[in-house]
Amino acid sequence: MDSMYRPQRLNSEEVCSVKWDFIKMSEQEEDLILRMYRLVGDRWEIIAGRVPGRKAVEIERYWIMRNSTHVLPPSSKS
Questions:
Q1: Is 90 exceeded by the pLDDT of residue 67?
Q2: pTM of the complete model
Q3: Cα 64 → chain centroid
């Protein structure tokens, strides 16, 4: 994909300065994000346009957290 069509990404200073809480998505949202990612790749603005109530940055963070071996979801211990 041509880089001129990609939205500008946050620089590492901006990303590091923001505390990331684990983002919960419904099964339907997860499925839609996965299917859209397969179609358009990491074009988060396009994916966010298909997931009602979600911003591109939320979806990108969710994707990174879900697919990273370093970030784990919060414990579900009761």
A1: no
A2: 0.62
A3: 6
